[in-house]
Give the backbone structure.
Amino acid sequence: MLDIKGLAVKLEEEDKQILKGVDLSVEAGSVHAIMGPNGSGKSTLSYVLSGRDGYEVTGGSALLEGEDLLDMDPEERAAAGLFLAFQYPVEIPGVGNMTFLRTAMNAQRKARGEEEISAGDFLKLIRAKAKELKIDADMLKRPVNVGFSGGEKKRNEILQMAMLEPKMCILDETDSGLDVDAMKLVSEGVNALRDAGRGFLVITHYQRLLDHIAPDVVHIMADGRIVKSGGPELALEVEKNGYADILTEVA
Amino acid sequence: MAAPAQKQDPTEARLEGLTLPDGAAWAREAREAALGRVRAMGLPTRRDEYWRYTDPATLTQAAAPRAAVFKPTDEVPLFQGVDRLKVVFIDGVFSPEKSDDLAMAGLEIDRLQDALAKDIHWAKDLYGTRETAGQDPVARPLAALNTAFATDGIVIRATGKAEKPVELIYLHRDETSDAILHHLVRVEPGAEVTVLEVGPAAARFNKCMEIDVADTGAFHHVRAQGRDHERRAVTHMFARVGKEALYKSFTTTANGVMTRNEHVIEIAGDRATAHVAGAALGDGHYGKFHHDDTVFITHDAVDCESRQVFKKVLRNGAEGVFQGKILVKEGAQKTDGYQISQSLLLDDDSSFQAKPELEIYADDVICSHGSTTGAIDETALFYLRSRGVPTDEATDLLTLAFLAEAIDEIADEALREDVAARLREWLERRRRG
């Protein structure tokens, strides 16, 4: 599904290399987790994959189902099936949540040469999905993320994911700012989307999210590289001993 | 008093081609007095402080500069779904054939020249009165010129709640038309009327509306200035708002070489409300775009509220201007005055100049003003793109969101939806090219 080879990235504005050759393959149907200390490059990886400005790719490649992601605009990546759940979802005053989602959905369909969704079908779909995530009608009507609590913002991200049905989902520290109940809701939302045709990359600091979203593979990232990969037990090891042991071991 | 020497010749050059229309003695007197004011003030030039950001040359020159007639083939008239009384002007001349009967329960409607021909008419107390009052402390010679020479217009007296809005439809057919229209609106105590204005009107348009909202009356105004790229307009709204009365005005503008919209509002009765808003979409791609909103609100009563909300989206070298003043007179306690003027510049070629002013002589007031100029929010833009919305469509979505605060000032939901939909269509059409 997602194949990253030797991905090297520096900041556009300054001479600072952030990613120093990331190798990672996420197969369809699997959930991969990336853990790592602050500043290891986890979030940069998610931004670069989604096409955010400010980064310069200096080497390597990233393919989504064989297509070169790095060559596409952010909206093309979305239409191709990539979705990033933001660590800090953006507030957009004046744009209603429903308008936002419907515009996004239809833009993706248009880009793929599909029919636009009718207003009626859209309403039915969003009501059903919102209910599962305990998102009420008021939240759907309000401007995108404006006045939402931390938990509401993250649930709203998952709602977008559920509506857009991407092939490859990247969750960037979706657990940050969530209480136990919100974490459970968000995880259930993600688990409901687990599917043989869909890949997940879950970026997190802590093991606790992985209690709810059980990963198939866990990677440890440090200083711009994946330094260790393993099964779910690797996350437990981090939780118990911190990163220090692992980093010493691979150094 | 005569105008400064350097203004006399250009002023006389403009006056040369104009004749004072006939009318009843009182009307003739009002027009001659207005002509006297024009001569005393002289027509404005760029050197006047009040015209620092907008060059009035094409508004004051003798002949109207040519303006091509814009013929959108795919555009339905605005407010078509709204039941309203249509009053049509073609190049500034009332068209009885195209207009509805000037009759509606709760309203008395006359053509301006008919009212001004009568020895006894309620218009006598209003014609030129608000305009004259509005000349102090800032001269507005183009409004006095209008009072002197207006050739047509409509006078409306609301005696009850009007059952539907009155729409003034301004068609532009002649590339050299130079129209001067003057309207009067008197809202009697407890009465309510909505006046809509739509269309480019003429190659050059000088419009003046004098409004007197009596105690507990309500006046609503929604205007969409025409899309003609080359049209020019100077408009004045002079209003007096009585006790517990409401004055609400919204204008949307897209295109136009030159637009100067002035609002001069005197809040004269306690617990009165005056809201003025504007949403402008300027695109220099279709030719020069210059849009100036100039507002002067005077608080002269207790416990009143005023609000100015002006938003402009400018691209491809479009120019925006805002001059807004709140004057709180001595004794106008408990005044709540709010003013915001913001522009969204979509490129480096466009510009926005703002001059917000507060002058307060009462000590128990809340007045705030803010003015911002900014580019599109890149973070929001990326968020939208990451969800699959292409850059231009995302920009339009953010543009409409930016204008929303001004559009929300329209009280009536159907009218508000119609204006919002129209702005959305304009942007979509522009995107399709």
Notes: The first strand of chain A starts at residue 2 and ends at 11. The interface with chain B takes residues 50-53, 73-75, 77-79, 84, 86, 89-95, 99-100, 103-105, 107-108, 111, 143, 160, 164 of chain A (CB under 8 Å). The radius of gyration of chain A is 18 Å.
